[in-house]
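Recap quiz, item 2
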Amino acid sequence: MYENMVTARHYEERLQEEYLEGKQPAFDISAGPIPGELHLAAGQEAAAAGVCQHLRDDDAVTAPHRPHHVAIAKGVDLQRMTAEIFGRQTGLGKGKGGHMHLFDPEVHFACSGIIAEGCPPAAGAGLAAKKRNEDSVAVAYLGEGAIDQGAFLESLNFAAVFDLPVVFVIEDNDWAISMPKERVTDVENGANRADGFEMPGVRVDADDAVEIYEVAGEAIGRARDRNGPTVLEVQVHRRMGHFMGDPQTYRPEADQDAALARDSIERLEADLRDYGVDDETMESIREESHERVEAAIAWAKEQPKPDPADAYEDMFVNPPSGVTDSEPDFDVAGGDD
Amino acid sequence: MSDASGETRDLTMSRAMVSAIAHEMRENDEVFYMGEDVADYGGIFDSTEGLREEFGYDRVMDVPISETAYLGAAVGAAQEGMRPIAELMFVDFFGVAMDQIYNQMAKNTYMSGGNVSVPMVLTAAVGGTYNDAAQHSQTLYGTFAHVPGLKVVVPSTAYEAKGLMHNAIRDDDPVLYMFHKRLMGIGWLPAPDGPKTPVPQTDYTIPFGSADVKRDGDDVTIVTLGLHVHRALEAAADLADDGIDAEVVDLRSLVPLDTDTIVESVEKTGNLVVVDEDYRSYGVTGEIVASVADEALAALDSVERVALPDVPIPYSRPMENEVVPDVDDIAAAVRRTQ
Ligand SMILES: Cc1ncc(C[n+]2csc(CCOP(=O)(O)OP(=O)(O)O)c2C)c(N)n1
């Protein structure tokens, strides 16, 4: 857990540096080595590590627009994920998907940038496991802002009705972009959404990786034992803006300070010390994880960029006749990168 | 066009939009704005900057992330005679609320035999060119223009943004107002020079179905909209160096479509190039070519379509640049007509 958390934190710190390159003085989202938007999850690592620690490669995870910490905890190929984020040909999606759309079928990991839309496919993965009589489970991650969305609520009902092995993990970071939780919901405890579907709903109030691990263990165990779905809400903190470049003018400074003061990684370090883990051991875990991150970034940056013509491939795995997989049937100019 | 004379000032497209909205909100208490991050944030694309400060949270409402609920609520409030403006942050998110848009907002007037009206505006940011991949870069003009019952407008400059917005809010029918992110003039998505234009201080309307000839020319008609008006103008400037004189028609609205202006231009030039940032098949380019063929087949010497090839928009820059039409693509298509 600790290793996953420090890896995720360091990974994102490094992505942030890379992302900012070429974007100053005027912040231009389409400039620099990392394309598009970038949503970082600093402060939310415990939600990923505490839950995914219980998962196997054949358990499915769907992540939302803020996916890196979850992907790391789920064991997504770090090098190919990084190459994807840099838009390279050897990335997980050959540079077609990017940071919000990471897919690693080896470890059953998928993403969507559309709010709450990972919930139905997670229910579907649970359905597949049930139909095949397998004991794999599915986990759908979403933010506290996303739980007002129909796709989430419909998926709860669907999973409940068919007793599917699914855990819905709500990462409550108090903010949906600029909208504070209290302004868009009357329900303080998002896990209570489960009540209407007669399934367990549990909330972990402190962003405490150990407690999340324990509570998630019960929920995932229940799913694996075919005792149906659970909603698990965990309190986390958004240390940064919603996306890189977000000026956060809407956010009270005290809230930002509180988010920075309450660091789940430091908290876990304190716990580990209490358990008798010495500082050198933690330091060596940190160092190894840093090396892994540096190696992934270095590897990714050496990878070739896609050819413009690659854009026409992969629309179908079985291209219908009449559709040429690799070449458009009309003139294309451009591709001036 | 109503009076657009008087004092002007240079505005970005987002400022022009907001000034029209603020004017209408001052004039009419029934106008209100709903969307995600529209109050304190001022709209992710600055589409509501400053409105909450003037009108408060009751009239500039941040809503839960539940597009079905708030877009549908706009339909319902409109049917009660209010004039809601509801913002879909990225047009790509239409799917989660498709029924409210496609079956309720668009069709209730017709199904009620004209007895119900839905005087609402749905604003949505459209467009790619900033490497945000397939779920955040679409224009989807064709998707909305395809369903009967929605008026669809697409401003290309600040001047259009304001005049079309005044008209949209005053219109008694549902209007889909699709603004291109690249034209808004926001810090993190720099705009080209074109969209910042002089804008009259007073209110004025641009009627729907009135295309604007942005550049006169004799040799070829380039029909386009939104961001690609600026790319077409740049291509036309390049082509002029080679002695090709291109006319650029800015559609400004897709529904209604000003076929007269297009046909008139094609009858003069004989050549038609349609440029669109939406998918090629079953879309805007096909529609326009078909309309011209219907009305002026004899005048057509050649036709070219420049649009997004039928692929989702890729993330990585070389591939996105490949599929989104650029100035060179437009110029090359024009050359093929000569
Ligand atoms: C259907 C849909 N609506 C709106 C958005 C835009 N959007 C992206 S992230 C976000 C806020 C999400 O908040 P939350 O679920 O709390 O997750 P967080 O960003 O805080 O991790 C919004 C509104 C979207 N991607 N999809």
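The pocket of thiamine diphosphate is lined by residues A 65-66, 113-115, 142-146, 171, 173, 175-177, 242; B 36, 65, 67, 89, 93, 96 (CB under 6 Å).
Chain A touches chain B through 57 residues (CB under 8 Å).
End of item.
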